[in-house]
Write a structure and sequence with these properties.
Chain lengths: 274, 257
């Protein structure tokens, strides 16, 4: 369904002073309160550059708050967050792209115009921004929808446009907050395969927040479990990589006894974390 | 607005006019008490060259200029208040207070200060019209989805970029609600201004016509005034359809940009 890319991953400029210098994202004793409730209490995490971390946890455990703090939209009340050497909020904001569960596409802009927003924001003309985003559009299988308004697209397509826009921001760290949570299971499986292929081609430091354990295990190379509020990291599971791409490889992976055992481990951690 | 959608209101209007005509004829109502529609129409034609044309032109100028002034001032003030919480706290109560000043009282005072010129009329039209524009703009900007703003911040969006690319377009439907209200009020402001002192204009014609019992002329002026208001309203409506097509009916069109 999704065309695999064969061209090199240089759709956008790669002369980037923000490229990782070894360490990726590091959280030390991070805590956040909202009024009387502790959203996150003492979270420690190390995410090496170019690795993919999945965060699973019961709903309302502060996963999204954690992402907001990593990307610099919020500051922690205690502890430090370091993203590729930047500990201040503006520095983290410059290094992180954030993709929320809702697609948040602008209804008055077409697909291409939505996707080029990060480039327009950096001062490029509309024309230049369109020219640079066009190859990404082709790669993401969205070229034929370039002029469609978001309202004319299916949920899966909208989410792909949203991801494309996140990628077009060209940040070294991608924070995905339940990116496929609102989709039906078939579309979600398609997009998981597609995202996995994208990330294999163009490695980034990825933090994926999800309530779907399978999704986390399929897409990430480490999965941590957060406890119910106040959120703490209570378990960490390394996930060995698997070969192949596409639906067949995914189904084989899901049937793999090692994978099943891994999933049971994470689910057990989740249940005790409630 | 298609012809089919206008049919019901045309029908109701025709029935009302017919009843009016019928009642005034059957009951032999004097023209100076209530002129029949056909008498109003005749007066409209007969007095057009001598009186109504120049009066219409004067009032139209006041309405259009005053409306344009209020839109410019309202948008500017709405955006300024959005950007500065201090300005909002300082000016918003005064803004609401300004709307409690009775226009009827203000109009003669302005006429004393500025005389028979166009200035007091423009001030009155602008004063009536700009409030809905400010409130529409401010409300629209305040109710923008905060997640959209957060999203823009992670996509290299700075304050100005967020305003021009997200906040202002998202506020447009609300701005247009304010503009529609302003368009409906504009004529009232012009007439109030002319009532308090003018040498020409439809309000002036009415003020002269009532004591002279020229009721048909007064009604003719009302017809012209209504036509102008409807035209201004239609203009705003057309601009809204052009600028905010995604709001009313996002899936109606095919491949639009």
């Amino acid at each position: 369904m999704f065309a695999r890319r064969s061209s090199p991953p240089t759709a956008l400029s790669s002369s980037d002073p923000l490229q990782p210098v070894g360490t990726g994202v590091e959280l030390r004793g991070v805590a956040k309160r909202f009024g009387q409730t502790d959203a996150v209490a003492g979270a420690d995490l190390t995410i090496p550059a170019h690795s993919r971390l999945g965060i699973v946890g019961p709903s309302g455990c502060g996963k999204s708050t954690l992402l907001s703090m990593i990307c610099g939209l919020t500051d922690p009340d205690a502890g430090t967050v370091d993203v590729l050497g930047a500990a201040d909020a503006p520095g983290r904001l410059a290094r992180c792209a954030w993709m929320p569960q809702r697609d948040l596409l602008l209804p008055w802009r077409g697909v291409l115009a939505n996707a080029r927003i990060p480039l327009e924001n950096q001062g490029l003309s509309r024309r230049e921004a369109s020219r640079r985003v066009q190859p990404l559009l082709d790669r993401f299988g969205l070229a034929e929808f370039a002029d469609h308004r978001p309202a004319q697209l299916s949920g899966g397509l909208r989410q792909r446009v949203s991801f494309l826009r996140t990628v077009a921001a060209d940040k070294p760290v991608l924070l995905l907050d339940e990116p496929f949570g609102a989709l039906d299971s078939i579309t979600r499986a398609d997009l998981q395969d597609w995202l996995r292929a994208m990330l294999a081609d163009e490695p980034r430091t990825v933090v994926l927040v999800t309530h779907d354990v399978e999704e986390a295990l399929l897409l990430c190379d480490r999965v941590v479990v957060m406890s119910a509020r106040p959120g703490r990291i209570v378990a960490s599971v390394d996930v060995p990589p698997y070969a192949g791409t596409g639906a067949a490889a995914r189904r084989a992976r899901l049937a793999d006894p090692d994978f099943v055992a891994l999933r049971d481990t994470v689910l057990a951690h989740l249940e005790s974390a409630r | 607005m298609t012809a089919t959608r206008l049919w019901p209101s045309i029908l109701v209007g025709a029935v009302l006019l017919g009843t009016w005509e019928f009642v005034t004829r059957v009951l032999h109502v004097e023209e100076y008490i209530l002129p029949a529609p056909d008498q109003v129409a005749t007066t409209l034609v007969d007095r057009w060259d001598s009186t109504l044309r120049s009066a219409t032109w004067v009032t139209l100028t006041e309405i259009v200029l005053g409306f344009a002034l209020s839109v410019a001032a309202g948008l500017a003030l709405g955006c300024a208040l959005h950007f500065s919480a201090a300005a909002r706290r300082a000016l918003y109560p005064l803004l609401i207070g300004s709307q409690t000043i009775p226009i009827v009282v203000l109009a003669p005072i302005l006429a004393i200060i500025f005389g028979y010129s166009i200035t007091p009329k423009l001030i009155l039209v602008a004063l009536i019209c700009f409030f809905p524009v400010v409130v529409g703009t401010l409300d629209g900007l305040a109710s923008v989805d905060p997640e959209l703003v957060r999203m823009m911040r992670t996509l290299h969006g700075r304050r100005v970029a967020i305003f021009t690319r997200v906040e202002f377009p998202a506020a447009l439907p609300s701005v247009f609600t304010g503009l529609r209200l302003a368009a409906a009020y504009a004529a009232t402001g012009a007439v109030f201004g002319e009532y308090s002192g003018a040498s020409d204009g439809l309000g002036h014609v009415m003020r002269q016509g009532v004591p002279q019992l020229q009721s048909a002329l007064v009604f003719a002026a009302i017809v012209l005034l209504t036509a102008m208001s409807v035209a201004l309203f239609a203009l705003v409506h057309g601009a809204e359809r052009l600028l905010v097509p995604w709001h009313r009916n996002p899936t109606r069109e095919g491949n639009t940009r």
